[in-house]
Amino acid sequence: MSTPRETEIRRRRKRGRTMGGGLRRLLAPVLAGALALALAGCAEEEPKGIEGRKTLRIGVKFDQPGIGQQTEDGEFEGFDVDVARYVAAYLGAAPDFVSITSGDRERLLRERKVDLVVASYSITPDRRLQVNFAGPYIIGHQDIMVREDDADIHSVHDLRGKRLCKAGGSISWKRVTVELGIRAKLVPATTYGECVEMLEAGMLDALTTDDVILAGFALRRPEAFRLVKAKFTDEKYGIGLHKDDIGGCEAVNRALIAMYQDGTAEKLLARWFQPAGLETTGHVPQFEGCS
User: Fold this and answer.
1) 195-200 contacts: CB < 8 A, separation 24 or more?
2) Where are the alpha helices (DSSP H) in 175-283?
3) pTM of structure
């Protein structure tokens, strides 16, 4: 026979179990709903890197013939655009092209407004501090473009005292005025397309940047412009990614190797640059390494 104290203890334990069961029944729907929301969020959340994405937002140029140009129907075409399409397909993603200027590239990558930048993007030590680079996928050479009737400029040293375009976000003018110490008269412009318009209008004496860029402009208007063919730098074009996306960078490098190994790169180089007289090669450039 139980004592009164033992009876009271059993009664309290039974009441506790009853209250606990009721509380669990009340909280169960709430917890289930919270878990469902958490799982839904995980399922819908895009990875921060480029790997595993169904769509890749890719920054490309819109006013550089042969490199990246937006046509009248809104589509993009050019060597960089075709490279971007290949890389996206290799990664199992659809490309969503975004027009971009040289001055926007680092900012848009840093703010994750684009996933990749394939836009005549030279790899430099300063830029590597801000973004990651896959590649290079092509090596260009800085050259000079003048009006067809120009008889004064034959080498980079002839730019001394000449009106030279300073395109926004570009470092090409620095190669001349800073690195080589040639005192040209810099004339600012927003894009290379604007530089070309100013050159044709007689507001400039010369435009200097990579030969693969200049070749497209010269080929479009051979009666108006010519290349001096005074190559004086090597320009390694890389594909820009967010600084933290090392895995994505390595995946893009694998795509670029495949592009050269299956012959696609050689066909694209021949299509976009050989008509302008540029020499191309089907060999994979030596990569800089992701960091």
Assistant:
1) 195/165, 195/167, 196/145, 196/225, 198/165, 199/145, 199/146, 199/147, 199/165, 199/225, 200/147, 200/224, 200/225
2) 192-200, 211-220, 246-261, 264-273
3) 0.79
- How does pLDDT run across 3-49, given as a tens digit for each residue? 655 555 566 555 555 545 554 555 555 455 555 555 555 445 566 79
Average pLDDT over residues 225-241: 94
Cα(186)–Cα(163) distance, integer angstroms: 6
Question: Is the four-CA dihedral 206, 212, 217, 222 of positive or negative sign?
Answer: positive
Only one residue has tokens 């010269």, namely 218
Q: Are residues 286 and 123 in contact, defined by beta-carbon separation less than 8 angstroms?
A: no
Place of tokens 């004064």: 152
Distance, CA of 67 to CA of 80 (rounded, Å) = 5
Domains in the chain (CATH in brackets) are: 55-140+235-276 (3.40.190.10), 141-227 (3.40.190.10)
* Helix intervals (H) in the chain: 4-44, 79-90, 105-110, 125-128, 172-174, 192-200, 211-220, 246-261, 264-273
Q: At 237, which helix (H) or strand (E)?
A: strand 234-242
